[in-house]
Amino acid sequence: MTTVSTTPGTTPVQPLPTPQPAMRLRELVFGAARSAAVRAVARLGVADALGDTPETPERLAEAVGTEPGPLRRLLRALACYGVFTENADGTFAHTDMSRLLREDAPDSLRSISLWCTEPWTWEVWPRLEDAVRSGGNVFEDVFGKEFFDYLHQDAHESAQVFNAAMTTSSVQSALDVAALLDLTGVASVADIGGGQGHVLASLLEKHPSVNGTLMDLPGVIARADERLRDGGALAGRASIVAGDCREGIPVAADLYIIKNILEWDDGSTRRALAAVVRAARPGARVVVIENLVDDTPSMRFTTAMDLLLLLNVGGAKHTRQSLVDRLSEAGLRIDGVRPVNPYLHAFECVVPD
Predict the structure, then answer these.
(1) Distance separating alpha carbons of residues 224 and 221, to the nearest angstrom
(2) Which helix (H) or strand (E) is 27 found in, with range?
(3) Residues 115, 116, 121, 124: is their CA dihedral positive or negative?
């Protein structure tokens, strides 16, 4: 147990030595147990029930409606990885990681933790070998329909978890994007495939002289950020346009933002980038923001997402070079690549004259 409690009056259990390769591999093949434990504790609401004072498993079990013995075992398993810490007196306390599972945490990862462990994931992960052999998704073989059709038609609860996870992720990264981008000389911004428009809203709040357009599929923009809708605080400077960016982009802007949508097959990626270049005037900026599976301090996270994309939609995360290649092929001039945060990179491009 590697996390030390900072709560006064408690003595943490001493950390164990680093295991040898054979034991690390044993731990790795039991990775499903870790994921299942995080999902269980998130669904039970244990992090929300535990306050700033260490609690016994008995008190926590009473609060969340479980048996104390199994709950102690669950918490002990998670404490091995720094999610909660077990004290010498048998109580458990929060760590920085366990607090992220609270609903009220400003940077909560509860929805994302649930999304990555939804029931359908346990059925497709064992088919990874088939996906690697074929190079395509296995989701349709398992469920008889495409991923998003399945979510919205057959798995309504999972669709709600997906929406909550994407909203959480977008809200958190939007502030990082707004802090990174210099909008000097920019009068108009277009957020292409921008989901609910959290990035656009953050930019418009920071830059009161800038106007913006959010473009995404009709079903997506129907849930657009309230700040951008009619009557919202930013509605006077925001437009919302329905459309598929692979088919065309009816928006002229000084700056185009494309965030986390170039994860489809190569053909779709090329069509989307070509549409941006056709729509943009010479000299317009194009900022492409993506997770990379190399050159990042979060490779364990991004490479895992890459494999999940392969399984469910046949997509892929980019390497730095693969994205440079796609942007160059589209005719964009790449002026630089900068980290947005530990798991996102921004590729600063310009449409040539």
Answers:
(1) 5
(2) helix 21-29
(3) positive
